[in-house]
Amino acid sequence: MPATVLIVEDEPAIQELLALTVRQAGHQPRLADSAEQALGLLREALPDLLLLDWMLPGQSGVELARRLRADRRTRELPIIMLTARADEHDKLAGLETGADDYVTKPFSPRELNARIKAVLRRRAPEATDDVVDLGGLRLDPASHRVHAGAAEVPLGPTEFRLLHYLMTHPERVHSRVQLLDQIWGDHVFVEERTVDVHIRRLRKALEPSGLDGHVQTVRGSGYRFSATA
Ligand code: CA
Fold it and tell me: How far is the C-alpha of 145 from the C-alpha of 148, rounded, in Å?
């Protein structure tokens, strides 16, 4: 699944170049030219990553980053700050804005995409195209295929996303609410038992390979993917 990258940059030419760069890496850009506009877009849906310019008209990028870190809903959002000069870069490093990385303009598209990839790998592995090989299952996000040994496991799109998320965050218990936020989106109204329905479908698809036991119910808490089952 392509990662959604929200770009907050007020200079149209740079915004366009950023969007092009992000698109070339296979991600989906969303655009805002101020912190206020970005907040509006963030209220609608959370992106996988935020590319945030330091100098913005009105509220600065630094202020926005701080505000997002203080809010429970956006606290975990991966942020890469863009700075125009090396000294801003130094200043930022000392500011504790909570940004995951900093890139100085003018940026090299290759460098920027490498940074995006590194931050996504660390903070949102389910938003990368990395193949996940775990517990006898091999999930390839690029081809949207799952194999158990040589046999392909046929999965619907929701079961695929669910398995991808669980496999990139293994051995951890995820509540139904967390899974709804991650897989359906945090502003989509879906009943919690919808998660149970898709977990059941996922297990059924894994049954022929005998690997359905990896998808575990943790009574009273939620679900977990365990590679050692
Ligand atoms: Ca700017």
Answer: 10
